[in-house]
Predict the 3D structure of the following.
Amino acid sequence: MNILKRVVLIDDDEVNNFVCESIIRNENFAEDVFSFQGAEEALDFLKSSVEPSGEKFPDLIFLDINMPGMDGWNFIEEYRKLPEYATQKCSLFMLSSAVDRKDIQCARSHNEVKEFFSKPLSPEILEFIKEEFLMRVE
C-alpha cells in the first residue's frame, strides 16, 4: 500500500529524477511522482495544485539545492508565499549532493525543511522518513 498520494522531485539532473522515481515507486511510497528539472516549473505546478481542499497539493517534496536559474534557497522563498493551508500538510526535504556544512546547516535552519539528505535517495531514507516524520502525523 502506498504511504502518500503525491511526491514531487525537484532536481536539474534528469537521471537522478528517474532513479528517485523508480525507488519511490518500487517501495510503494507514493501513488504519483512528479519530477521537475527546474524550480520555476515546479512552483508553477504547485501554484496550480493549490485548492481549498488540499487534495491536489503534494504530500512531500524532495528539493535539490544547486540548480541553474532558481536554486533551492530561492525556491523556498517562493514556496513560503503559497497559502499555508496548502503547504502545512506537505513535508519538504532537501536531497542534495552538496557536502558543504553551511548548506546542511542552512537547510536545517529553514522551518519548512524537515531534514537534509545526501544523494542518492535510497529505500533506507524513505523508511526513515516514514518512521520519523510520517507515522507521527497519522
User: Anything to note?
Assistant: Residues 59 and 90 are 4 Å apart (CA to CA). The two ends are 15 Å apart (CA to CA). The first helix runs from residue 14 to 26. The beta strands are 4-10, 30-36, 60-63, 91-96, 113-118.
